[in-house]
Design brief:
Order of helices and strands: HHHHHHEEHHHHHH
Organism: Kryptolebias marmoratus
GO biological process, one term: positive regulation of vasoconstriction
CATH superfamily: Rhodopsin 7-helix transmembrane proteins
Structural class: mainly alpha
Main location: membrane
InterPro entries: GPCR_Rhodpsn, GPCR_Rhodpsn_7TM, Prostanoid_rcpt, Thbox_rcpt
Helix content: over 70%
Number of strands: 2
CATH class: Mainly Alpha
Distance between the termini: 92 Å
Strand order of the largest sheet: 1-2
GO molecular function: thromboxane receptor activity
Largest sheet: 2 strands, antiparallel
Number of domains: 1
Radius of gyration: 26 Å
């Protein structure tokens, strides 16, 4: 459809021709996709509430607040966007006729941008919080409270909301996309559309980059503390669990969102015509992030992992620390026995007690000589 003076902006695409094609997709796929995501996030939210009531760790409660914000964002994103898509396949409505003022199209585009950026920004915020909590625990415990944690989540929502409102001020624009079930930012050579496309792409890529860098440093620091000589001074079970969950959230966001963000940046910078086929493909790929995120917390908890491997004492130490202690203890006993048992039984027992925690989890090896 070519643009003209009497054609609303959201229907006068300047990048690719809009094709009204309600038979292009199937309602069953969209309905199952949305239902699975909504159910997953609802289950995760219930689990988070129960965990928040039981937890006694202050750092853990802060992390649960961020997770709750992520789950609520994913749930609302699927609810809003899924309602538009499913209703389109049920009614086969043509938005050019039913929404000549572009109100619904702009709202749909704002929702796509807002609920797309929020998970990436929350992931980066969680990475910053974990980086400070692991590397500067004293500064974190004195400066961060539950109220400030909630404020940080609200600030992320506010910042993402401000970006999504920019096209309404003339900086960028939202346009209906083929097959007519959704609206998104317009990737065109026009200055404002070009700048807004790059803004959306670069904000997402920067959040992913920050998450990767800070989480890498946090993991290295946590491994050093867990496996170092001072590993008995501080409990690290909750911190290991939180880092595992955060790494998985970061990995899912990177795999799901990087193709779309790179595609938008590449198309905008090259000035080449946008491929509708690839845009649909990467959008669907990115939406999997909202479905997979809640299963990270549902499945990767110590209570669940304990059932998978009950031989590890998950209640007293995390899996990483327990495996390390067990492995290092066996290596020490094997090495000492191979050397001829130069150390006495009392010395062996004292050495193991000083290097492994808790003492009750490892039986002292007595020399039979």
């Amino acid at each position: 459809m070519n643009g003209s003076d009497d054609t609303p902006l959201c229907y006068a695409n300047t990048s690719t021709p809009y094709i009204y094609y309600p038979d292009m997709g199937k309602i069953y796929f969209s309905a199952v996709f949305s239902g699975l995501g909504l159910t997953s996030n609802l289950i995760a939210f219930i689990v988070l509430i129960k965990s928040c009531q039981r937890t006694r760790s202050l750092s853990r409660s802060f992390f649960l607040i961020f997770l709750a914000g992520l789950v609520v964002t994913d749930f609302m994103g699927l609810l809003v966007t899924g309602s538009f898509v499913v209703s389109f396949y049920i009614t086969h409505v043509d938005w050019r006729v039913s929404d000549p003022t572009c109100h619904f199209c702009n709202f749909m585009g704002m929702s796509m941008v807002f609920y797309g950026l929020c998970p990436l920004m929350l992931g980066a915020t969680m990475a910053v919080e974990r980086f400070i909590g692991i590397n500067c625990p004293f500064a974190r415990s004195t400066n961060i409270t539950k109220g400030r944690t909630v404020s940080m989540v609200l600030m992320v929502w506010l910042f993402a909301g401000c970006i999504s409102l920019l096209p309404l001020t003339g900086f960028g624009s939202y346009h209906i996309q083929t097959p007519g079930s959704w609206c998104f930012l317009n990737i065109s050579p026009e200055r404002h559309d070009w700048a807004f496309s790059l803004l959306f792409s670069f904000v997402g890529l920067i959040c992913i980059t920050v998450s990767i860098l800070l989480n890498t440093v946090s993991v290295v620091t946590l491994i050093k503390v867990c496996c170092g000589p001072d590993r008995n001074q501080r409990r690290r079970d909750h911190e290991v669990e939180m880092m595992v969950q955060l790494i998985l959230i970061m990995t899912i966001a990177t795999v799901c969102w990087c193709p779309l963000l790179v595609f938008i940046a590449q198309t905008a910078l090259s000035g080449s015509p946008m491929s509708v086929r690839y845009l649909l493909l990467w959008i669907r790929f990115a939406t999997w992030n909202q479905i997979l995120d809640p299963w990270v917390y549902i499945l990767f908890r110590r209570s669940v992992l304990k059932r998978v491997n009950p031989r590890i004492d998950w209640s007293r130490r995390s899996s990483v620390i327990s495996l390390y202690a067990s492995f290092s203890g066996n290596i020490r006993r094997f090495t000492r026995s191979s050397l001829g048992g130069n150390l006495g039984s009392d010395g062996t027992e004292n050495m193991e007690k000083s290097n492994m925690a808790p003492p009750s989890t490892v039986k002292p090896s007595h020399s039979s000589a």
